[in-house]
Amino acid sequence: MSNLGITEVVLRDGNQSLLATRITLEDLIPAAKKLDEIGYWSIESWGGATFDVCLRHLNEDPWERLRELKKAMPKTKQQMLLRGQNLVGYKHFSDQMVSKFINKSAENGIDVFRIFDALNDIQNIKFSLQEVRDNNKHAQAAMAYTTSPIHDLQYWIDLAKNMEDLGVDSIAIKDMAGILKPNDAYSLVSKLKQEISVPIHMQTHATTGMSAATNLKAIEAGIDNIDTSISSMSMTYGHSSTESVVSMLQNTDLSLNFDLLKLDEISQYFKKIRAKYSEFEGSLKGADVQMLIRQVPGGMLSNLESQLKQLKLEEKLDEVIEEIPRVRKDLGYVPLVTPVSQIIGAQALSNVIDNERYQKLSIELTKLISGYYGKIFGEVDEALIEKAKLEMKPIQNRPADELPDDFESLQKDLRKFCAKNSIEDVSTKDENIISFALFPYSACDFFKKNY
Predict the structure, then answer these.
(1) Confidence of residue 298 (pLDDT cuts 50, 70, 90)
(2) What is the pLDDT of residues 12-26, one digit of tens each?
(3) Neighbouring residues of 200: CB distance < 8 A, sequence distance ≥ 6
(4) Cα–Cα dist 94/403, whole Å
(5) 415 burial via Cβ count (<10 Å: 0-12, 13-18, 19+)
């Protein structure tokens, strides 16, 4: 039997990439029970955007979603994506809040925590990784993969070694934009297997059309685990098909002991689900190579299109697309991943609309330059550094060290909100306080509707 593991992502990243995370728990549970019978190494079922969308759009308690999915899949490890000190939000949270979140996530059903930082700053994931280990769960550190003149093979090897030194259980290559080329994957995984003793996992998206080849070359290089998504919820902005990978490996030394008929049954179910939620699907029909040409991820592109349409400036799209890699270069070639991709996209948009580059810096860009998101690996443009200094005092230490413990004060604020709105006091549960801290407006709306 193959030693290769498969992480099925249809319940989280597959759903998020293709259908904006809009599939309700009610529509996921029937498939979850069948997925539990397949034999995956893990199933990614939570984290990422699920928390936000549950509260904002689905009127669901994200904690209840986790508990129900865990109950439906008792045989399989449940995995989540965590943005280090950002948790599942878009800003840094205190160590106290990180500790509470991880403790409650583990208690409610998460077995594997895949943890990354948008800047690949080790200091932003160190605390959360240790908290996972303290909860006796699998701590996986993820490298946010990108390409640039400064991100060579040695950069990734050094980063992985630093992650291994933290005592992680595994390391993941997180190729969120599908830009890891097959031969580069072979070189990277081969070198990692020589230099690193913990298992190596990989996530790559199908956006640019390379995922199947990239996965296969990584497998040939000896990777321990890859992410896939059931066939009817695969490709375009999603991932390689689970069944395709299983079929590719049949009659080889790496043959997976997966039942294709059972997988097909699950695929047929999700075919109907995808049709049901088609209004949330993007327009991409083939491959999107913007990321290969201009370093612009597909999700970032669709968001910019929407913003320009609202401003009645659709004709500016090409200019904004051209501006994004220039802003990224000025910012030291930071990876284009949440929340940094949003910050750079917004600044590129501002530069174009204002007809002058950096006429004004957004607050978030100023914070990024000033160190409040972590340490930037590359060299930031000196003029931008000086301009940011006029707005904000730069910091050199870990951003979370600037944040006070705030759990008790948040609990008081939530209790006051409940009293003011004459609803049940939900502040007695830590999970509700965490939801309130992460997404205050959406959480308050949810509490008013349901309590």
Answers:
(1) low
(2) 999 999 999 999 999
(3) 170, 171, 172, 173, 189, 192, 193, 223, 224, 225
(4) 5
(5) middle
Q: Is 422 exposed, middle or buried (0-12, 13-18, 19+ CB in 10 A)?
A: exposed
Is the omega angle on the peptide bond into residue 335 within 30 degrees of 0, that is, cis?
no
Which DSSP category does 239 fall into?
B
Token pair 């939570």: residue = 46
Whether residue 78 contacts residue 114, with contact meaning beta carbons closer than 8 Å, is answered with no
Q: For residues 171-209, b (16+ Cβ closer than 10 Å) or e, as one string?
A: bbbbbbbbbbbbebbbebbbbbeeebebbbbbbbbbbbe
Rg (CA), the chain: 21
Q: Is the pLDDT of residue 1 over 60?
A: no
d(CA 277, CA 281) in angstroms, rounded, equals 7
Query: Nearest-5° angle of CA 329, CA 333, CA 337?
Result: 120
Backbone angles phi, psi at 236, to 5 degrees: 40, -120
Measuring CA to CA, how many Å separate 321 from each of 332, 346, 354?
18, 11, 15
What number of CA atoms fall less than 13 Å from residue 269's CA on the CB side?
19
Burial of 63 (0-12, 13-18, 19+ CB in 10 A): buried
Q: What is the mean pLDDT of residues 208-227?
A: 97
DSSP 296: -
Contact present, 257 and 36 (Cβ < 8 Å): no
pTM over 0.85? The answer is: yes
Q: What are phi and psi of 306, to 5 degrees?
A: -65, -45
How confident is the model over 127-162, as pLDDT tens digits? 999 999 999 999 999 999 999 999 999 999 999 999
| More reliable by pLDDT, 211 or 305 | 211
| Distance from C-alpha of 132 to C-alpha of 122, rounded to nearest angstrom | 15
Residue 303 exposed, middle or buried by CB count within 10 Å (0-12, 13-18, 19+): middle
Which range has highest mean pLDDT (46-55, 280-289, 332-341)? 46-55
Amino acid at 286: G
Of 384, 389, 339, the C-alpha closest to 359 is 384
HSE-CB at 20 with a 13 A cutoff on CA atoms is 15
